[in-house]
What does this fold into?
Amino acid sequence: MNLSRLFAPDEGRDALRTLGGLLLGLGFFMAFARKSGGLGEGWSDWALFITLLIITVFLYGVGLVGRLNTPTLRAWQAVYVVFGILLLPFLLFQFIEAVGGNASAGLNVFWVLLVTAAAAAFAALVADIRYGLLLTAIALIVSLSALWNEILSDGLIAHYGIYRGLLVIYGLLFLALAFAVYRFDPLTRLRPSRVAASEPERWLRAQDLVTGAALSAVLAGAITFTAFFAQTDSLFAPPVASPSLLWDLELLLASLLAVLWGARFAVRGPTYVGAIGLLIFMIDVGSEVGVDFPESTIVGWPLILALVGAAIFVASLLPDITTPDAEAKLRGTLGASPGPSGAGPSTTGSAGGFGGTSGTAP
It folds into this structure.
């Protein structure tokens, strides 16, 4: 069977494959949901597992096989693989139930999300699946949180300070991984025709991990927002994290850096995460969430932010202030003209400062 011919790019057939895969995934998962809940007669744990196994393997497997047999990534392949990754935790948790385990146990959550992260990373590095490394980062945050919840006495909610520190460390590690996946292509031998990803593709790939780093850093500071629910009549009332100047400042800086990065390099992920972080900061600090005796005064954060913002704006008007092209320095494309969308420089073969030899824009 000639798979390259079978999966040959065609707009019409690609659209049909996309619709077919989405409907298959929805249908199988709906069957799983109905037969695993309290709606009528349910299926056995093994029958539910097989139901999820069929559709998860089909979506993830066919998406990868299709990508390995086409010269470039097609939209339907990304849809299949991402859908398969999202179904994978349900499949593994159902397997735990089928063998008589406790799916909610911390160590089980740890390894299930760790496997999910590995599957997402493999798809991103081998098949160029966009958002694969973002899913990897999210899965790793949840996985490691479950592990530390088991390690720490009384769980994470009794050690918010430690958890916040861990989230900052995760963010720094994700930035290091972003550097690594931009500079290197570790799974080249498994890629189509064993050809390494181009520089623009590696640049876009790294942005998913930058988004994961922003998410982890913003989450570290935003945990104070749990106090907001304690002040309302909401049924959701988690243990409260005490307000702290240090973590308010961390939330502000992480959010500002995320928005600055996203705006400068025209990537949506960090921008969205940073904007959400700033919104939480405004509500948290502006309303003095968690403070026993809030004061209605502009002295403090409001005045400091206004003065610093005004000073920075005035500095931007000074004629003698110049800054280097940050994107060109990061990507090693000084003298080229990288576009704002991250599509890559207009010239090829320049020496790679941050990321090695740059490739051709797709």
